[in-house]
């Protein structure tokens, strides 16, 4: 059976993982600016295996609205260009010699509003995950008290600490969501 400090530590680790997952999901949401991470989800065929573009090409920012993709092998250019074009990103890559330019079109006001809804939904998912961790941690503490391995005072203190941790994590989620929304709405 675990102790109260272990329960708190595990809860904090799980909440941090939820925050990291949120950061990763928010990075995939496209803003008006170009970001090489946009191409992370695009897979390209490489000797019969589907791999992320970052494993067969160098990704860079050419300017605020253009991503540069430089394939490491001569024959990969056409495959990479096709994979980007067929992805659900809505971008139209163009080859210039060995370099593939991926211009990121400016977003419409309507599209920006849709994306802020997506960002808010991601934030809600993260909050639910964090609250589930809180619930599990509180149940573990209650079990310790029931099994007479901790006092009711310990339980009350532990639940207060877990609640403070939860509040801190949810505030962090709100901060991340607000920052991403500001990014999306900035023209």
UniProtKB/TrEMBL annotation:
MF-aspect GO terms: ribosomal large subunit binding
What's the superkingdom here? Bacteria
The GO cellular component terms are: cytosol
Keyword list (alphabetical) reads: Cytoplasm, Protein biosynthesis
Task: Report the protein's function.
Answer: Responsible for the release of ribosomes from messenger RNA at the termination of protein biosynthesis. May increase the efficiency of translation by recycling ribosomes from one round of translation to another.
Similarity-based family: Belongs to the RRF family.
Protein name from the UniProt record: Ribosome-recycling factor
